[in-house]
């Protein structure tokens, strides 16, 4: 049977959180922490990126910072090997398109992935990076009725669609994740599928 491997991104492919990495690396740690204490993480990151832009930090500055972010040891070779063996690779992540694609492209991994599911991003006509929620914040979010899903993304909803694709193509799913946001999609998998939680991270328990 063919195999579909679904990866989380932050702390599963990348050995850190990409939002924190950019906020810390560009000097906005305090501002980001203050915002995330009062509002959804996704919205806070969009506001921080606006602050960066207003202070003269460019898209290339952000990209340079992202290129320095560490990957999990051996993950690049693992991804390339799985792809070369014919596995269909997908990402389901609460990061954003610009961060993920910049990092994967830097490491020569972008073309290994069939699909990337994440929060959309654009560069507006002012040259400012904008981040938007994957799912409508005003509608009911978590398909499993858990408090582990952030308001902007229920990975379980995405996995339901991916699962239908896998079944149509007679593929078995392997899901790799680390955080509490990965708990919901893991619950949506069939018993014959596999979960690989990162050891000693929240979803491990």
Q: Unreliable segments (pLDDT under 50, ≥5 consecutive)?
A: none
- Average pLDDT works out at 94
User: In DSSP terms, counting alpha (H) and pi (I) runs of 4 or more, how many helices?
Assistant: 8
Output the CATH class name: Alpha Beta
Main beta sheet, described? 5 strands, parallel
The strands making up the biggest β-sheet line up spatially as 3-2-1-6-7
| Structural domain tally | 1
User: Pairing-aware structural class of the strands and helices?
Assistant: alpha/beta
Bulk shape: globular
Task: Spell out the blueprint of helices and strands.
Elements: E1 2-7, H1 18-25, H2 29-36, H3 41-54, H4 59-67, H5 75-84, E2 88-96, H6 97-106, E3 113-119, E4 121-123, E5 129-131, H7 155-168, E6 171-177, H8 183-187, E7 194-197
Parallel strand pairs: 1-2, 1-6, 2-3, 6-7
Antiparallel strand pairs: 4-5
Helix pairs in contact: 2-3
Task: List the keywords.
single chain, 205 residues, alpha/beta, Rossmann fold, five-stranded parallel sheet, two-stranded antiparallel ribbon, 8 helices, 38% helix
Task: Provide an overview of this structure.
- Helices cover 38% and strands 19% of the residues.
- The chain is an alpha/beta fold and 205 residues long.
- The chain has a single domain (2-204), classed as 3-Layer(aba) Sandwich (Rossmann fold).
- The chain has a five-stranded parallel beta sheet with strand order 3-2-1-6-7, sandwiched between helices. Strands 4-5 form a two-stranded antiparallel sheet.
- Helix 2 packs antiparallel against helix 3 (41-54).
- It is globular.
- The mean pLDDT is 94.
């Amino acid at each position: 049977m063919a195999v579909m491997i679904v990866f989380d991104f932050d702390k599963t492919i990348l050995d850190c959180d990409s939002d924190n990495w950019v906020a810390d690396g560009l000097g906005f740690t305090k501002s980001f922490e203050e915002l995330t204490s009062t509002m959804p993480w996704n919205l806070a990151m969009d506001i921080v990126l606006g602050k960066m832009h207003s202070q003269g930090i460019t898209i290339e500055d952000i990209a340079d910072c992202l290129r320095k972010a560490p990957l999990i040891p051996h993950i690049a070779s693992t991804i390339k090997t799985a792809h070369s063996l014919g596995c269909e690779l997908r990402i389901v992540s609460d990061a954003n398109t610009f961060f993920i694609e910049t990092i994967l492209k830097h490491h020569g991994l972008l073309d290994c992935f069939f699909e990337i599911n994440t929060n959309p991003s654009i560069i507006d006509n002012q040259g400012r990076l904008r981040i938007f929620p994957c799912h409508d914040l005003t509608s009911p979010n978590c398909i499993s009725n858990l408090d582990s899903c952030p308001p902007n993304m229920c990975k379980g909803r995405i996995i339901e669609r991916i699962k239908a694709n896998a079944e149509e193509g007679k593929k078995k799913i392997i899901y790799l994740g680390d955080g509490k946001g990965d708990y919901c999609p893991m619950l949506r998998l069939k018993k014959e599928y596999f979960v690989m939680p990162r050891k000693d991270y929240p979803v491990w328990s």
